[in-house]
Amino acid sequence: MKKKPLKKLSVSLKSKSYEIYFGYDILENSNYILEKYIKDKSIIIVYDQILEKNLKFLSGSLSNITNNLESIGVKSGEKSKSLEMYSFLNEKIIEKGVDRKSILVAFGGGVIGDLVGFVASTMLRGIDFIQIPTTLLAQVDSSIGGKTGVNSIYGKNLIGSFHQPLAVLSDVNILKSLSKKELISGYAEIIKHALIKDKIFFKWLTGFGEDIIYGNDELRVEAIYKACNIKREIVQEDELENGPRALLNLGHTFGHAIESYVNYDGSLLHGEAVSVGIILAYKLALKIGSTSSREFDIVLNHFKKVGLPTSIKQLTDKIDNKNKLWQLMQNDKKFSNGKLSFIIPEKIGQVKIRNDISSEVVLSLLKEEIEK
Question: pTM higher than 0.85, yes or no?
Answer without folding.
Answer: yes
